[in-house]
Every structure is written in structure tokens, then in C-alpha cells.
Design a protein that fits this description.
InterPro entries (chains A, B): Homeodomain-like_sf (IPR009057), HTH-type_TetR-like_transc_reg (IPR050109), HTH_TetR (IPR001647), Tet_transcr_reg_TetR-rel_C_sf (IPR036271), TetR_C_16 (IPR041678)
Number of domains of chain A: 2
CATH class of the largest domain in chain A: Mainly Alpha
Strand content of chain A: under 5%
Largest interface: A-B, 46 and 46 residues
Pfam families (chains A, B): TetR_C_16, TetR_N
CATH architecture of the largest domain in chain A: Orthogonal Bundle
Helix content of chain A: over 70%
Structural class of chain A: mainly alpha
Keywords (chains A, B): DNA-binding
Number of helices of chain A: 11
Radius of gyration of chain A: 18 Å
Protein name (chains A, B): TetR family transcriptional regulator
Order of helices and strands of chain A: HHHHHHHHHHH
Oligomer: homodimer
CATH superfamily of the largest domain in chain A: Tetracycline Repressor, domain 2
């Protein structure tokens, strides 16, 4: 971030950074999350792959950067799971809802949800990100033979909750206080994870 | 339906029917489900409102017809709720999953889910249909002060399940047998409805 926002840096650096970001949008859009590679992005931006890592870190970092989604569920959710097990469902639902109550998260999150589900280009993107970066990390914390099913059931209820409350805005779930929704939905998440 | 498929009807009838259907698509798209009226549709099609009712029945019938969705959740779900209460969750999840396992339902259902969530025009359509035709009927069966919240929580998990399994096709939930998903998700629906 220092590089990005620093003053007095030599011209050319920000050009390379912008070229990499634009190349990443193209490559993710064309090949999906799984198909896009840092090498391919570097080649399209006409820079060395090391420079991509220098500016943007790893592939999920780069994805988070180009989608500009102000949360990192791939980092936050496994961290949240590591607390006391009996309240994991509550912590996850509360984290997601309190995040989406922040306008900058909600605005970008609604766009991500809409495009993830509607677009032929973007659906594989988000599926790839979830399948590679989020769900296996959740599954690893669970350490159960049916961990993939458990993680994807959690994703189904969290996504459904966000869509019903913030995208479609169904009466009832759209108007309920966060605490009420946590009380109703946390036991679902808890059961999908551990029971 | 006899009118639609009958033979030997005078020419002009099918023209009027097609004009009404086209007018309905326009009016629903322009005004949303709530804003569209049978009168407005009749006026746009240059026919009498009685003819709209004659060909298509009520507004939800007309909506089902023009979206060509081969299920009527507004009729089916309340019917399902009326059976033995302790298995209502299971009946709902099984009904929805077994319906979506039929290719003609799945194909159209994926389109409806995608457009419902993505489109600025279609989102109010589906919200209006759910809010006016499905959720109040579910809520009426529940007869509880928080019935609207309960019904919308059910909708959130059913929608999330369908999106995760059939649209985004997340590993785990996309591969699981119907019986496995019924066993995992039915208790959620049961709890949202009655507990």
C-alpha cells in the first residue's frame, strides 16, 4: 500500500501497477478464478511475475484487490472458526451481518452477489474463489470426512441470508435487527458445522 | 388452457392472447410485480380486462404464465405446509429439491434465480411475487406474530440451497444426494417455521 499511495515515486511504477490490475481483471474474466494465473497476468501486463507478487501478493490477494471487496472472507472466516467452538455459528453470522451493515461493504457486497450469480463470466470467478480459497479453509478447521458438504451448507445459508436481506430485501428478514437474525440463524450454522 | 390449445377457434383469439402475454411482460418489467395491474396490461394489449382474466386467470396466474416457471410455489408450498406439522420442513426441502432435479424445472429455475437477483427490472418482480403471493400464504399457515420473519428465513435457506447447488454449483452441496440434503436442511426449515 505504501507503493500505491506513496508520493514522489518514480513514474512508471504506478503505470505497471495499473497495467497489472487491468490484466488481472481480463484474465480472471476470461479464464475464471481457477484458470487465471499470476504468470498469465504478468505476461498480459508485460511485466515480470515477481512484480505482480511485489505489488499484489498472492492470487487471492490480487482477486480481493481487483474485485475491491472490502472483506477477506478467506482470511476472516477461518480465524473466526478458531474461537470457542460452541459459539462459532453466532460469531460467523454476527461477523457477516455487522460487516454488511457497513455501507461500503454492503454496496460492494450486493454487486458481488449479483454478478456472482448472474454472470456467465463472473459465476466461475466467485465459485473458484469460494472453492479454492474459502471453503477448503473452513473444511480444514472442521477436520471431518464430510467437511466439504458442511462448509458448502454454511455458504448456502449465509449467501441466502445476504441475498434475502440486502439484495431482494424480503419483508421480515430485511427489517429484522441484527441480534434477532443472529439468534435465529446462528443455530443453523452451528448445526451445519458440527452436528 | 382449453382455449389456448383448442382447435378450430376463430382467428384473432390467439392474437389477443399473444398481445396480452406480450403486454404482461412489458408491464411487469416496467412496473414490477406490485405495480403492474391487469387493467394496465389490458389497456396496453387493447383488450378488455375481462379477456385477460378469461385467458390467464388472476395476476399470479398471469405472472407464472409469462415467466414460464413450471412450478407454482404460491400454490404448492401452502398446500405442503398443511400436512403433519412435524415433517413440514422435510416435505418442503424434498419438494423443492425433487422439483429442481427435473431438467425442465432446473433449467427455467436457474434462469429465474439468476435474473431475480441480478436484474434491476427483475429483482422487484420476484420480490413482489414472493412478498405478495408466496410469503403471506406461508405466514397465514403459521399464524404467529413473527410469521413474516419466519417465512422469509425459510425463503433465505431455500434460495441459498438452490443457488449453491444449481447455479454456483459449490463442491459438497452440488454433489450430495437429495436424501442427504433433506436430512441436513429440513431441521433448519422446521426450526425457522415452528421453533
Amino acid at each position: 500500500m505504501a507503493t500505491r499511495r506513496g508520493r514522489g515515486r518514480p513514474p512508471g511504477e504506478s503505470d505497471a501497477r495499473a497495467r497489472i490490475a487491468a490484466a488481472a481483471v481480463h484474465e480472471f474474466g476470461e479464464h475464471g478464478y481457477d484458470g487465471a494465473t499470476v504468470r498469465g497476468i504478468a505476461a498480459r501486463a508485460e511485466v515480470d511475475a515477481a512484480l505482480v507478487h511485489h505489488y499484489f501478493g498472492t492470487k487471492p490477494d490480487l482477486f480481493a484487490e481487483v474485485t475491491q471487496f472490502p472483506l477477506r472472507p478467506d482470511l476472516e472466516v477461518p480465524r473466526i472458526l478458531r474461537g470457542p467452538r460452541e459459539e462459532a455459528g453466532e460469531r460467523i453470522v454476527r461477523f457477516v451481518l455487522e460487516s454488511f451493515e457497513r455501507p461500503e461493504v454492503r454496496k460492494r457486497g450486493v454487486i458481488v452477489l449479483r454478478t456472482a450469480i448472474s454472470g456467465k463470466l463472473t459465476a466461475p470467478l466467485v465459485k473458484g474463489f469460494l472453492s479454492r480459497e474459502l471453503l477448503p479453509r473452513v473444511a480444514a478447521e472442521l477436520d471431518a470426512p464430510d467437511a466439504a458438504l458442511r462448509a458448502s451448507l454454511v455458504a448456502s445459508q449465509i449467501a441466502g441470508m445476504l441475498i434475502a436481506r440486502y439484495v431482494v430485501q424480503l419483508p421480515g428478514i430485511a427489517d429484522a435487527p441484527v441480534d434477532e437474525l443472529v439468534a435465529r440463524i446462528a443455530p443453523t450454522i452451528q448445526r451445519y458445522l458440527f452436528e
